[in-house]
Amino acid sequence: MAKAGKINLDFFKQNISEKCGFQRPEILMKPKFGVDVSVIDLGSGKILISASDPMSFIPGLGAKDSAWLSVVLTSNDIATSGYAPQFAQVVLNLPDTMSAEEFKDYWDYTHHYCDELQISIVGGHTGFVPGQNSTFAGGITMFAVGEIGKYFTSANAQDGDLIIMTKSAAMMSTAILSKSFPETVKEHFGEDFWLKTSSKFEQTSVLKEALIAAISDGVTAMHDVTEGGIFGAVYEMMQASDKGFEIDETKIIIDEETRRMSALFGYDAFQSVGAGSLIITVKPHGAENLLTKLNSENISCAVIGTVKEKNSGYRIISQHEIKEYKHPETDSYWAAFYNALQKNWK
């Protein structure tokens, strides 16, 4: 039986990597583990950037938050190329138990968030399926048109680059757990704390910092944080770039709300779903300028490590030891979520 969550590197190599249909010469970035986008040469100096993710409809979150989650995660993938998404195709295979009013709310919010991010929905497919009870209710593909030679992927980190993160670790984990178990969070930390942690959900776009990084000197690669958290995102980027890394976990930004929530729910902030944070690699000479730019836009950021040669391995420096990173089979968020359900937390 397959394990829940995104596939790992071995599964990708064994089943997908070399089985991607006809290999056209226009493909500049083909499917690759740890890479957020594909890139196609359109000729005349133009490229097409695309990325796909599930469309989510999560009853516990509601139509508004489900729509935001669907739109922002794919938008974040495109943003790592240094461009804002422009077009989208949406496929919906929704449960046949969904009411007309529920569909209207969900689609109105999907339209609203795409409109807000200046993304045109240009097509897709919509249907209702008997017995469909998954929270993954379809898929969304976004596109951007860019210029040849002027784009980023997560596969170009270079030896000696500094690794920068933005915002805080485990933002999405903190926000979803707060929204999913509001009574528990309020009971332990109060109403104001709950409002603050829930609001992190709307702060999970990385488009702003990605576009800042794209025009900053010395930037080599970008990757958005999702499953696996900060450690997982850096690991995926180095797999894509064929590099090693050294991370100082004491430098990783973990805001106070996430520290308290992770202690309550028992998730590892370093290795939990972290949408809203962006990993950027930059030449040492460009790091200070990039940090200054991000800080001037009130985007928290920090240098957390260094890109190393591949044979250096994947090293994590903590207060007490240096350890070799091993990519976990599942994100620690899921254990925290299901444990809270078993405890009947509300």
UniProtKB/TrEMBL annotation:
Pfam families membership: AIRS (PF00586), AIRS_C (PF02769)
Domain PurM-like N-terminal: start-end pairs: 36-142
Biological-process GO terms, alphabetical: protein maturation
Occurrences of domain PurM-like C-terminal (ranges): 158-314
Domain of life of the native organism: Bacteria
Family to which the UniProt record says this protein belongs: Belongs to the HypE family.
Record PANTHER family: HYDROGENASE EXPRESSION_FORMATION PROTEIN HYPE (PTHR30303:SF4), HYDROGENASE ISOENZYMES FORMATION PROTEIN HYPE (PTHR30303)
Protein name as catalogued: AIR synthase
